[in-house]
Design goal:
442 residues; alpha/beta; Rossmann fold; 2 domains; ten-stranded mixed sheet; two-stranded antiparallel ribbon; 13 helices; 27% helix; globular
Length: 442
């Protein structure tokens, strides 16, 4: 089943910009994109077709602290223009220089969100230095009465369980801090492939809505089961089987972030406090496990491959090199010695599917996907009896980016950028649901 055109995959950015110009007289949801990478959130939101509303990216920021060459930012500027784009450490950006906006989006890093102390000044709390969540918090706090109505954020699903010694503490800090700022929060762990998209990529998506908005009022006025099963943003966008209220977890969050840092889930630190879906309003959260209930078509890796005549020779793997790949992908048991303690132990790992199946969605793209060296986690496919790696264009397609979106840097860097990206189709579907929900308010 060919599904390569799902969710506007083949639409060029130029065509999308033309569409945006046609909708310029409509109401816009002015949006800023933080930790923008190469613009995955932006493409997903701008793909949404709604002739009453559209998303308008009024400012963006991308900064990679570990490198002098700002490849992601360079690609972002190349594709969308340099106007209103910041390539500066977000911690050094003054909030007054960030335009007022209706929605803030971004995929922020999963870090230790602990709070050092409560301060007696206008800054409120002292978050851990260098942690980018606290930059989002700073923007929201300093915008005061001009805080955005909505937040749409993405992170690895590990966020719900971190740190390992106090599971859920970091997410509890995020929820409580957003509650203090007047937001309700919904979340869902989504595996893109389970909803017809071409990559098995599990990420947690977080949607926050400000008090007084349509979404906030819906959560407040509907029942708990209705919010999780049918009425919440995620329930309306990504269907699930009905949740039994008896299997839900409900708890009240402390308003003291230092108290959460020190004490959250201390009694049962290995028990998950937050499950795959949930919402929080007025300091109380409700969460549950889910079963996906998707009735649409599914995508597979084979649907997104380039024509073999376009594949450069360096992507093919020789018979001699193939042995190295087979070893990396196979099961193994290796005796090792801990360099610090001198303790000898056995390192074991099971075998992986090799080559990757063309009849299933791809595995998760990782940042180390590029390069010719044999690796356990890189994709290898077999086409016309030849083994090869995936090309940058194919990696882009598996994240649902337009072809050659990342062109201009090395193939290895292009693969790295896709390993850091998100599956655009998820953002597009959420964006479509957001506009549908609020268009009647105009």
């Amino acid at each position: 089943m060919k599904t390569a055109n799902l969710f506007g995959l083949s639409q060029s950015i130029k065509e999308q910009n033309n569409m945006n110009m046609q909708m310029s007289q409509n109401h816009s949801i002015n949006t800023i994109e933080l930790f923008a990478g190469v613009g995955g959130f932006r493409i997903g939101l701008e793909n949404v077709k709604n002739f009453k509303l559209n998303f308008n990216i009024v400012w963006s920021n991308q900064w990679e602290p570990s490198t002098k060459l700002q490849h992601a930012s360079q690609i972002y500027e190349k594709q969308f223009g340099a106007d209103h784009h910041s390539n500066e450490d977000i911690a050094k950006v003054k909030v007054i220089d960030i335009p007022d906006h209706d929605m803030l989006v971004g995929g922020f890093p999963c870090q230790d969100y602990s709070v050092a102390s409560t301060l007696k000044n206008a800054h409120g709390i002292n978050g851990k230095k260098g942690v980018l969540w606290w930059e989002i918090y700073r923007i929201l706090q300093e915008k005061k009465d001009k805080t955005p109505k909505y937040l749409l954020l993405e992170n690895v699903d590990r966020l719900l369980k971190s740190p390992a010694s106090q599971r859920g503490r970091d997410f509890a800090i995020i929820l409580s801090s957003l509650n203090a700022l007047g937001y309700a929060v919904e979340w869902r762990v989504i595996n893109a492939s389970e909803y017809g998209m071409p990559q098995r990529r599990r990420r947690v998506f977080i949607f926050a809505s400000k008090k007084g908005t349509h979404f906030y009022n819906n959560l407040k006025n509907n029942s708990i089961t209705d919010n999780l099963n049918t009425q919440g943003l995620f329930a309306k966008t990504f269907s699930i089987k009905s949740i039994d209220e008896k299997k839900m977890i409900s708890r009240k969050l402390s308003k003291d972030l230092v108290d959460i840092t020190d004490n959250f889930n201390k009694d049962t630190p290995k028990t998950n406090a937050f499950l795959e879906t949930g919402y929080m309003i007025e300091g109380v959260y409700y969460t549950s496990r889910i079963e996906v209930d998707y009735q649409g078509t599914y995508s597979v890796l084979g649907d997104f491959l380039e024509d073999e005549k376009n594949i450069p020779k360096e992507f093919y793997i020789s018979d001699e090199e193939l042995k190295k790949w087979a070893y990396q992908k196979g099961s193994k048991s290796i005796e090792r010695i801990n360099k610090t303690t001198g303790h000898q132990y056995t390192y074991s790992e099971g075998s992986m599917g090799f080559p990757d199946s063309l009849d299933k969605p791809s595995r998760t793209i990782i940042t180390g996907e590029g390069g010719a060296s044999a690796s356990r986690f890189k994709h290898v496919i077999k086409v016309n009896e030849k083994h090869r790696r995936l090309t940058p264009i194919e990696l882009e397609r598996l994240n649902m980016f337009p072809d050659n979106h990342t062109i201009g840097v090395t193939d290895t860097k292009r693969a790295f950028l896709m390993g850091n990206a998100l599956v655009i189709g998820i953002v597009e579907r959420l964006g479509n649901s957001i506009l549908k929900e609020i268009q009647d308010e105009l």
